[in-house]
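Changelog note: in this version the structure field was regenerated for every chain. One regenerated record is shown below for reference.
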Amino acid sequence: MDFRSSDTITGPRSEDVLPTTVTAAVKVVIVGGFGVGKTTMVGSVSEIRPLTTEETMTQAGVGVDDNAGVETKTATTVAMDFGRISLSEELILYLFGTPGQERFWFLWNGLFEGALGAVVLIDTRRLEVSFDVIGRLEERGVPFVVAVNTFPDAPHHPVEALRRALDLPDEVPMVDCDARMRVSSRDVLMTLMRYLHSLAVPLA
């Protein structure tokens, strides 16, 4: 076989290389039930080509994975998604997207290690898949914000109704977003950063 130099991968793309000015990094995890848009959000907002571990769904998941409402989904994250955002020349934000199916939740332990906080993506068509996700974050004591991903056929509910349904404390921010849009996903992360800052700085 004729291997030409243009066909050989010799290292990361120049735009993926970590700038030499970076001196610190923070970590955020994006969580949610199966098919709520975690991979989409990481991909839309990451400044580098995101690392994904999506695999084609097979018969092995039939009767095990709850794909009600997302029956047309053909691929799923089996380990994690990974992306990166530069907050400044010295500080970068690492994004980790978790797998949605409950049978892969054992991977959360490693993904949450060292994380400052989390974004919980929800789909109002399947609100029930978010209950256990939020419960796990509360058990771990991980600060989080809730982002309502806007799907075209998803019903719209008032914020207070969603808060009651999720049993969400008043102080936890909840925002609408479109995970496909970079600006919208960025705004969700900024909401999380502001919330984390408010927790770190005591009120006068």
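Spot check on this record: Confidence is low (pLDDT under 50) at residues 61-65. Helices lie at 38-45, 108-112, 131-140, 159-166, 182-200.
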